Amino acid sequence: MVTRLVLVLGDQLSPNLTALQKAEKDTDIIVMAEVADEASYVPHHPKKIAFIFAAMRKFADALRGDGWQVDYTKLDDPDNAGSITGELLRRAEQHDASGVIATEPGEWRLIEALQEMPLKLHMIADTHFIASHKEFEDWAEGRKELRMEWFYRDMRRKTGLLMDGDKPVEGKWNFDHDNRKPAPDDVDFNGPMQFTPDDTVEEVLDLVETRFGDNFGTLRPFWFATDTGQARRQLTHWVKHALPKFGDFQDAMLNDNRFLYHSIISFYINAGLLDPLEVCQQVEQAYKDGHAPINAAEGFIRQIIGWREYMRGIYFLEGPDYTSRNVLKHTRSLPSFFWDADTRMNCISKTVTQTRDEAYAHHIQRLMVTGNFALLAGIDPHEVHEWYLAVYADAYEWVEAPNVIGMSQFADGGIVGSKPYVSSGAYIDRMSDYCKSCAYKVKDKTGPDACPFNLLYWDFLIRHRDRFANNPRMGNMYRTWDRMDDPRKAAVLEDAQAFLSRMGSGESI
Ligand code: FAD
Ligand code: DLZ
Ligand code: SF4
Fold it and tell me: Would you state the pLDDT for residue 433?
């Protein structure tokens, strides 16, 4: 009998994994390994490492219960080879295995490492996505602009989600204009379901505390779901109590509410615990049952079959050099307040503190607070990319990089976004209550108390005028600048430079 190894990675924890479908229970051996290389290629948030290790251990137990032979290596196992390929080589020798079956990993780094390994490799597509690489490539072929909205409509047609024959339900593809309400006074949802750590989780928490306790991020309290059953309970809880208002307040931010009406399921979908199509079908059903309005259901489904799939398509279409793109030639170092939250800018301080505590921030905090600031201030996009990859529990390069390098930092030159996502403090003030308790004044455009976003916004636009002045979506911004009188323009740019040099010299800002 020939034995083959079947690799299951920490973000492939699904019984429908293609590698498992191709394997034979009687003869093949599943290899799962907690390894130093994966746990430290960026300084991951301790909650992220604990989540992955705990979910891996439980998934391995479930596979054993289902009759599979699983060779599982814990991080502190003395024989641990320290890398995925090292572990495969060690197990191959142990079992005299003929080769490895693997589902394609979500990062070029690991795909390349597997391909270079001196073992026969059968790498299969990951079918936990709506679109295959080929479908995305065919869609992209010959298009001048790869706009998400057009791709999304194809995914609606393909899945049949929210479709009435070949037409979108309620006559429109996109209800986004209903989804920009500012922060509500009262949020009648208490956030995600929280799970008390069981023995498996506790053991992992102790390990992570010892080995990664110095990484940025608070490990305890730890409440994440760590198996599919728990993740489904969280999803159902959210559909019941929060989905109806998800659309309305999708872009809002609040000092005292970290989750608002967000689903907090990206950790679970990205690790394989939830299936994206099943999640969307559950949301569609809530709409059909009259429980959720169309703007909520459509807004949510678009995030998953639209943005999530589109981001993956871009990552694989653009290739391994994507994370080193830097068309705006930004070179400033990431300021220390991205790690210690020590800044008088309340929006940044709140977002970084929340990120430290939860390994989570929602989309608008990531895009319009930390991302916006990094872009305006001209931070090196690779440093920004490594920060996002480390600090969020849902971050794997296939989804993080297009969001950061593309959508947030415009470092890909406009493949993901047709214009840079930049704003002055006015946007943050409209969508949150951050500015009310900030040391800076959002209404001040210059002077010692002026909101730094106001200063840097103009500095950014003027710095990159040659690139953006002819962008039809940015003409208004430049016209507003051109209407300002010269002394005002000079004061804005001077104050912006002074701010950047204070930041560069490490002064508290
Ligand atoms: P909800 O707001 O409830 O949205 C529902 C689901 O839609 C999410 O769970 C997610 O699966 C999907 N989704 C929404 N927007 C996106 C998007 N832009 N790209 C991909 N999926 C999306 N998402 C990640 O999963 N991993 C990342 O590393 C990541 N990095 C990001 C970095 C930046 C700079 C930005 C702007 C966004 C990033 N996102 C990332 C997208 C988004 O912020 C998160 O998916 C979302 O905040 C997760 O929280 P949630 O589950 O409560 O999402
Ligand atoms: C993120 C991560 C971490 C922290 N640790 C492991 C690990 O020890 N073993 C493993 O199989 N996977 C881990 N992962 C997930 C991988 O990094 C992920 O599979 C690749 O980045 C591809 O998406
Ligand atoms: Fe952020 Fe400016 Fe508002 Fe302060 S005033 S919270 S720095 S946007």
Answer: 96
